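Input record (Table S2, row 293):
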Amino acid sequence: MGKKRTKAAAGAWTADPVELLRVGQDFDLASFDRAGTPGWEGDKHSAAAFMAERGEQLSDLQERLFADGKSGGTRSVLLLLQGIDTSGKGGIVRHVIGMVDPQGVALASFGVPTAEEREHDHLWRIRRQLPPAGKIGVFDRSHYEQVLVVKVDQLEPPELNETRYEELVAFDREIIGNGTTLIKVAMMVSHAEQGARLQERLERPDKWWKYNPGDVDVRQRWDAYQDAYAEMFARTSVDEAPWHVIPADRKWYARLAVTELLHRALTELELGWPPADFDPKVELERLAATSRA
Ligand code: AMP
Ligand code: MG
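Output record (magnesium ion complex):
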């Protein structure tokens, strides 16, 4: 018993979350447990300890990526976040991305298109926000809204919706082709938990700024959104650009899991430190010669 508790206190992945959370052919959204903690043996406290450790590593990896970009490298990472209101997208930005140097991050949020954005095709505003080499881009919502809100609210003709899936995947491939590691994340919260979070936003004056009466309109269309998500997963989770579905009822798990996805993506870049474009020995001698002691 005591031994077990010690183990739980340490916390560990007992199965690879990158594999576990990947949306494959047989994924079924209807039966997906949104309060689950797949692959994690441990609790909230052990997760926090693990995340702190991962944060140090992420910070180092991010600096390597930034250094690579400064030295002519072409690689970047893009974390794309989708999820209904209250699913915790903002918490991911704050608690996961917040662990690395903000200078290396390019954050973009996509809301209702502005008048200017409406004058262009729907990918125009997205292209403008793609991360430059060396940066970790974060999309709070993305081009995938085209098959979520746009589809659910019938903002464009249904026949156009049909062509969007392939278009979105083609765009993902283009992003990847340009040297970006794409991580597509969908935060899935349960109906009950979303209700509780919206209620909290309404009951706490410090949360009113986050609330939008439109959030309840979206909640009224819950089933239509679930169908849209299921269709999006089925048609746009491809081998090169799979979706990862995150159970989001427990914020600590969602943050832990996304940390792991990001950590894996950066690790797989196998980034070293760029070589000096000067002679360190010569420079050390020059520096020593400036001594006034
Ligand atoms: P928030 O993320 O809470 O700031 O809300 C942004 C809002 O913009 C959400 O209600 C989205 O559904 C909406 N939105 C994002 N992209 C689009 C789009 N392409 N067309 C219409 N609405 C969008
Ligand atoms: Mg909102």
